[in-house]
Amino acid sequence: MSFFGKLKERLFKSSSRLSDGLDEIVADQSSTAAVAEPTPAAPPAQAAPQSAPAERPVTPAAPAARPEPVAVAEPKPEPEEPAAKPGFFARLAGAVIPEAEQRRLVDDEMLETLEDLLIRADMGVETAARVTANIAEGRFGRRISARELREALAGEVARILEPVAKPLPIYPRRPQVVLVVGVNGSGKTTTIGKLAAQFRAAGKKVVIAAGDTFRAAAVEQLQVWGKRADVPVLTAAQGSDPASLAFDALTQAQRDGADLLLIDTAGRLQNRQDLMEELAKIVRVLRKVDPDAPHNTLLVLDATTGQNALAQVEVFRRIADVTGLVMTKLDGTARGGVLVALADKFGLPIHAIGVGEQIDDLAPFDPEDFARALVGASD
């Protein structure tokens, strides 16, 4: 299966919410339009008898011989054949042909419904309004199918995401210090393990520092990943100062000639000032060893938190000078649209997205693939 297919499959909850919603938006007016369309067709039928008397004086000579073949033979085959063909092909194609034929007028009512759908998918009010306005441009007053609407939405989402889709930069500086931060349960420890394994596979010498000194499970989890990737994991006694561990880890990484030092940190809520101060202390201590450290600060976000992710970025960016984002758990939520809101509001690089527990389920962020998977568009 291609990565796009896998991504679309894993983004099922987000994708189905948007895709089904777009189908409903078009179908709602299509069904009412189907009832309304025969009414305008009736006046032309009444106009025909009025024009007929004007034509009769032109052919008065042979009224008796021609009416019978013309009236009996021609009208019957014409209605029967067109009625039979659509029914036959519609049965062959199932729902595909009727769905493709459904179109809806792009008007204020339709755009308001679309904007509401995007807000419910966690794109945020401002982003949803901007995307809707861009879709309306050049299409207002025209009729549009669900497929065309889906393609237009995918294009707008990709346009927002394109500038922020950047891989984690690798610098010649050794060791390159990558500090990983985030709230409780966002997936920091798993993300570090996957990054370590991927960089190790790429030939980099990697060291992990288990900076979550308060949670034994986090240390054990990193040690499992360390064995799997053949990467050393530096630990400290439970409850010890994480800033002290960060200092020691950077000193040892320098001594060992490591390419990358990945530092895990304890999960902390953005509204806990004491914990955020502890994070700021880690940064200050690292800079005593290397004034430029950390060279990258990755904020790991849990997609299931929805709009709360925006508040997390605000606080962590202020305290820890966040340089890039990783979004996890996109396979377990219908709120994948929040990634679009984050890109639109902050413009921070999005390095990778997580759609599962396996090592290859943390993948580089591809804006076009993500946009098409999010709205349920085909490959």
Automatic annotation (TrEMBL):
Keyword presence, GTP-binding: yes
Main localisation: membrane
Domain SRP54-type proteins GTP-binding: 175-376
Residue span, Signal recognition particle SRP54 helical bundle domain: 88-161
Low complexity biased stretches: 31-74
Species, as recorded: Falsigemmobacter faecalis
Compartment annotation: Cell inner membrane; Cell membrane; Cytoplasm
Protein's GO biological process: SRP-dependent cotranslational protein targeting to membrane
Organism phylogeny: Bacteria, Pseudomonadati, Pseudomonadota, Alphaproteobacteria, Rhodobacterales
Positions contributing to GTP binding: 182-189, 264-268, 328-331
Function as written in the Swiss-Prot or TrEMBL entry: Involved in targeting and insertion of nascent membrane proteins into the cytoplasmic membrane. Acts as a receptor for the complex formed by the signal recognition particle (SRP) and the ribosome-nascent chain (RNC). Interaction with SRP-RNC leads to the transfer of the RNC complex to the Sec translocase for insertion into the membrane, the hydrolysis of GTP by both Ffh and FtsY, and the dissociation of the SRP-FtsY complex into the individual components.
Pfam families cross-referenced by the UniProt entry: SRP54, SRP54_N
Catalytic activity: GTP + H2O = GDP + phosphate + H(+)
Family, similarity comment: Belongs to the GTP-binding SRP family. FtsY subfamily.
Superkingdom, natural source: Bacteria
EC number(s) given by UniProt: 3.6.5.4
GO MF term (any one): signal recognition particle binding
Region (Disordered): 29-84
Keyword list, A-Z: Cell membrane, Cytoplasm, GTP-binding, Hydrolase, Membrane, Nucleotide-binding, Receptor
Protein name: Signal recognition particle receptor FtsY
Membrane topology: Peripheral membrane protein
Oligomeric and partner information: Part of the signal recognition particle protein translocation system, which is composed of SRP and FtsY. SRP is a ribonucleoprotein composed of Ffh and a 4.5S RNA molecule.
SUPFAM superfamilies the UniProt entry points to: Domain of the SRP/SRP receptor G-proteins, P-loop containing nucleoside triphosphate hydrolases
GO cellular component assignments: cytoplasm; plasma membrane
HAMAP family (alphabetical): FtsY (MF_00920)
SMART domains listed in its UniProt record: AAA, SRP54, SRP54_N
Domain named AAA+ ATPase: residues: 174-320
